[in-house]
Amino acid sequence: MDAIKIESLTKRYRDVIAVDSLSLCIGEGELFSLLGVNGAGKTTTIKMLSCLTEPTSGNAYLLGKSIRQDTAEVKSLIAVSPQETAVAPGLSVRENLELMCGVHGFTKDKQNAKINELTELLGLEGVISRKAGKLSGGWQRRLSIAMALISEPKILFLDEPTLGLDVIARSDLWDLIRSLKGNITIILTTHYMEEAEALSDRIAIMKDGTLLVCDTAENIKAAVGVDDFEQAFIRIVKGALQ
Amino acid sequence: MKMLSFAKRNTKEILRDPLTVIFGLGFPLVVLLLLSAIQANIPVPMFEIEQLTPGISVFGLSFMTLFSATLIAKDRGGSLLQRLYTTPLKPIDFILGYTLPIVPFAVAQSGICYIVAIILGLDITVNILFSVAFVIPISILFIALGLLFGSILTDKQVGGICGALLTNLSAWLSGTWFDLELVGGTFKDIAYALPFVHAVELERAVLMGHFADIFPHLWWVLGYAIAALAIAVLLFLRQMKK
Q: Would the CB atoms of A105 and B85 count as touching at under 8 Å?
């Protein structure tokens, strides 16, 4: 079964079409990247798929559940790590994780087990008692992803997870994302071409709400006839495949 | 359980903000002490401790509006709410989660206010306990106003509207600082068309043990509280869908 099946998904804001009749399928366990310049429709697509924004028309099915009719079921399957770091700044790292366990209705035992597991997976032991608002950007991103993983999602949306991070923090997060690959279907949006190329099984490139291409990085480069993925992206966005 | 986890987080965020303690507890007490000092030198019937304390107690509740509005506006400004919207939390969980943590804080603030008033000479009667209990419906009104403003304003705007304008308006129009009869006319009509003076007169009636006199003030307070809460819920739901 496809993890995500998108059928003519459209979002219109008055005169602006943010996403225009998007259709594609994403397999289970796939790491799928959405690329595009600002305003391409990446974040709007993620917001629709995670039931944060209602589509104007079309539909999408996450593991068979409709984002329009089965909102509660969809929410139980997914987790989102939003573009900005979404942590409670006044709470400690542990309290942030406890908050997410609580809103998912975990028992005390399950909560402790899950927090221990994710603390170890994301290397949060050293900052577990520190206030989230006092952490560096890299640690806040790690915490943000840990909070997303609390609910054991089948599908994880990572909206620009490495934005603004230094090269070491970015490399660490790449390792983390790679470690999740295969177990969870991951939808990643990013502005970094090398990130998409290094991590993704397939990449979709959007412009003005429209899907321009969807394939592996190698195939996209081959289709444009260049060796560098960034060049391929630039040419596609400028109309090379039209 | 899920709602309580969210409410617990909100309690921590509020209590860990030092301005909350300084303004929420300290400022009303400073005003109480100052006006009592004036009363000691130049006796004014309005500033007699049994007249003044209910007014200060209600004035202190205007800070509950500031706290709830600031918390919601800050949450809206960041991405934490976006993350929580993708969890199984329902709209009612958000409303209760923001409202309930502030009620005990309002009761505690009122309790401290009456304890200080006792030190300043207020007779100890069981009516003090009833007065503190009647703070609960009044606090719902002020918290609902916070939900309402927090759903439409940014945290900076909240500082101006709730921190400056509402605290002053609720004070001037409450009949605590000066007798509304002295101004009379349209000003008095406006004051009596709003809930603040009714909240003070309700508290005064309870403290004096004149329980027959709590009407119609209680109806005004409850009416405004229900209306404010209903509008706040609608506005919160609207921004949730944005």
A: no
